[in-house]
Amino acid sequence: MPGYTSHKDDVLKRLRRIEGQVRGLQRMVEEGTYCIDVLTQVSAATKALQSFGLTMMEDHLHSCVADAIAEGGDQARDKVEEASRAIARLVRA
C-alpha cells in the first residue's frame, strides 16, 4: 500500500493547487504577461513540485522502505536501491 494512502486527500489537494499554478502560467502566456512575471510563476510551480516530490519520497521511506527493511532479505536491499535511484532523479531535476 502506498505511503500516502492515509492522507491521500491532502496529496490530491496539493496536486490540484500545483495544477492551478500551471494553468495560471498558461493564462499568463495567453494574456501576454511580461516574461519576468511568467518566470517568477514558473519558479513557484517548480518549487511546489519539488516540495511535493520530497514529501512523496519521505512517505515512501517511512512506509514502503521501512516495511521492506522490517521484513529483511533481498526485498529490503531492492527497496533501498530503488529509493536511492529516485532520490538521485529528484536531485538532478
UniProtKB/TrEMBL annotation:
Keyword Repeat annotated: no
Keyword Oxidoreductase in annotation: no
Pfam families: Trns_repr_metal
InterPro entries linked: Metal_Tscrpt_repr, Metal_Tscrpt_repr_sf
Keywords assigned: Copper
Family: Belongs to the CsoR family.
Protein name per UniProt: Metal-sensitive transcriptional regulator
